[in-house]
Amino acid sequence: MDSRETLCENPVIITDRDAWKEINLKDAGTIEVEIGFGSGEYLLRRASEYPERLFIGIEKKPGMITEVSKRVASHNLNNIRLLESCAKDAFADLFPANSISRVYSLFPDPWPKRKHLHYRLFSSEYLRLLNNRLIFGSEALIVTDSEDYCNWMLKQLPDTGFEVENSIIPPQFDTRFERKWLEQNFNTFFRILLKKARHIET
Ligand SMILES: C[S@@+](CC[C@H](N)C(=O)[O-])C[C@H]1O[C@@H](n2cnc3c(N)ncnc32)[C@H](O)[C@@H]1O
Predict the structure, then answer these.
(1) Ligand 1 centroid vs 41 CA: distance in angstroms?
(2) 103 close to 32: Cβ distance less than 8 angstroms
(3) Closest ligand 1 atom to 37 CA
(4) CB of 149 closer than 6 A to ligand 1?
(5) Which residues have C-beta within 8 Å of that of residue 84, sequence separation ≥ 6?
(6) Is any ligand 1 atom within 6 A of the Cβ of residue 60?
(7) Domain boundaries, the chain
(8) DSSP string computed for 129-197
(9) Would you say 138 and 101 are in contact if contact means Cβ atoms under 8 Å apart?
(10) Is 177's C-beta closer than 6 angstroms to any atom of ligand 1?
(11) 109 an active-site residue?
(12) Local mean pLDDT, 10-residue blocks, the chain (202 residues)
């Protein structure tokens, strides 16, 4: 059996629009979304902590999706769905306006080279889309190891409808990338907390 078949047979994993339609977002209650969940540690912890909420993890690497789906099964969690997609496409195509209660992204790829800046996820355009999909007053949390990426994101914020609170924080998420940085003696990270203060039409 090839890996695509395995993915499609797993009800936790969403690989196509038919499977997506089976999630009734309107009746799902509180929805939290993690962008680029990697090994899924934070997603699984949040889902265990809040069993009444629906957690949607978006990840572009199929290998991570398969790995995390096994953990979802072994923890008997029925409130997680894993979406194999680029987060830009998922927000643009799958979520309606005002549908998400919380978004988080831990250690998003920083794309440090100038010629790769256009790959960075949290551009002004994407932040406006994120704003549109979030419920009024709800929050998006972004944590990065890169001061340069943090400063770049802060510059993207005007006209995105968010109030921002940024701070330097100690390690606290225990994800694969946080552990990786700790091993290299990085002990502080950059936290950007965005609160939707005004609705943006997209
Ligand atoms: C640096 S890793 C961090 C993983 C995890 N959050 C952690 O803290 O260990 C970034 C993750 O984001 C995923 N990713 C990068 N760009 C993405 C995109 N546009 N849409 C969805 N996932 C993305 C990557 O595949 C990778 O798993």
Answers:
(1) 13
(2) yes
(3) 6
(4) no
(5) 7, 13, 14, 15, 59, 60, 62, 65
(6) yes
(7) 3-196
(8) HHHHHEEEEEEEEEEES-HHHHHHHHHH-TTSSEEEEEEEE---S--HHHHHHHHTT---EEEEEEEE-
(9) yes
(10) yes
(11) yes
(12) 47 85 87 98 98 97 96 96 95 96 98 95 98 98 98 98 98 98 96 98 94
User: For the whole model, what pTM was predicted?
Assistant: 0.95
Inter-axis angle of helices 41-49 and 62-74, to 10 degrees?
30
Which is catalytic among the residues 109, 145, 159, 174? 109
Q: What is the pLDDT of residue 25?
A: 87
DSSP string, 6-42: HHHH-TTEE-SHHHHHTS-GGGS-SEEEEES-TT-HH
Cβ of residue 86 lying under 6 Å from some atom of ligand 1: yes
What fold, for 3-196? Rossmann fold (3.40.50)
What's the 141 CA to ligand 1 centre distance in angstroms? Answer: 14
- Binding site membership of 64 for ligand 1 (Cβ less than 6 Å): yes
Backbone angles phi, psi at 28, to 5 degrees: -80, -10
Q: Whose alpha carbon is nearest atom 13 of ligand 1?
A: 36
In this prediction, residue 180 carries a pLDDT of 97
CA–CA distance, 193 with 163 (Å, rounded to integer): 8
Residue 139 tokens read as 């929050």
